[in-house]
Amino acid sequence: MMAKRTSVLNLQRMRDRGEPITMLTAYDYPTAKMADEAGIPLILVGDTLGMVVLGYDSTIPVTVDDMIHHGKAVVRGSERALVVVDMPFGSYQGGWQDALKNATRIMQETGCSSVKLEGGLRSAETVKHLVESGIPVMGHIGLTPQSVNQLGGFRVQGKTPRDAVHLISDAKALAEAGAYAIVLELVPTVLGQMITQRVKVPTIGIGAGPFCSGQVQVWHDILGMYDALKPHHARPFADLGTQIRNAITTYRKQVEAGEFPTADESFYMDDHAQELIKAQLPELDGDLSDAQRVLAAHDYELVARASENADERSPADAR
Ligand code: KIV
Known about the structure:
Elements: H1 8-17, E1 21-25, H2 29-37, E2 42-45, H3 49-53, H4 64-77, E3 82-86, H5 96-110, E4 114-116, H6 121-132, E5 137-142, H7 148-151, H8 161-177, E6 181-185, H9 189-198, E7 203-206, E8 214-217, H10 219-222, H11 240-256, H12 271-285, H13 290-309
Parallel strand pairs: 1-2, 1-8, 2-3, 3-4, 4-5, 5-6, 6-7, 7-8
Helix pairs in contact: 2-4, 4-5, 5-6, 6-8, 8-9
The site of 3-methyl-2-oxobutanoic acid has 12 residues, from strand 6.
């Protein structure tokens, strides 16, 4: 039987009991599977996809189709986590009807349980309509990367009293509109705490200090896999980028040195089949060009050498 996924109600209970909520991004089947198996209750298919997976320098080029393509893989890779898919730039800013159409597509085609969109007061009406239509919505305020061109870069928000008050109003508006959680990105710790104390839904911080109800991080940032941008708030819990590069270099070197594959990593046919083929060879050779004949001679030599040491392997050994 399939495991039961985390629900928005479970998250609310965690927040009410003061249990920190961990959220992590994932973008495909293997990353989702690993996050799920590691017990992450909340997986975000973030539109950071555009930067850390697709190689754009912002999230702006990401499309609904991109999000659906990756969202589907994440849903397939996870069993227990609540999967949230980001609504990309341009998919909800044109009014709630447009947003509802795109959110419906995302929910139906990926099988995810929720969507996330950026903006506070300006997005509240849209959030309200999506929620009334049965779509759980996560809000996102503070640094909203889809507005990077307006904000002048990936910089901390809410540092002046006026900006801080606006962000508190944004959070309240989202909670009132029915958002079940709110991401707070790049805000001073004290503001993260003030907002968390003022709304009844979970706040999920990223660069918003330790007092939020939970934390979210980007897969590639915490695993040392994205060199283009290294956010100050992201702790590298592993240096997989270096490990992967080293492993791939070793692979290349072993191929070049003739050390990979070994006889043990190869597959063989039984002696009888080999004899039958060899019996046919003079006939087949008659049809081969000179170059093919040279290659064929090389192949027989390799097969003969490999067969000397190896046990037979059945096709079931192959992936
Ligand atoms: O797209 C994303 O990964 C996000 C996180 C940074 C919260 O929105």
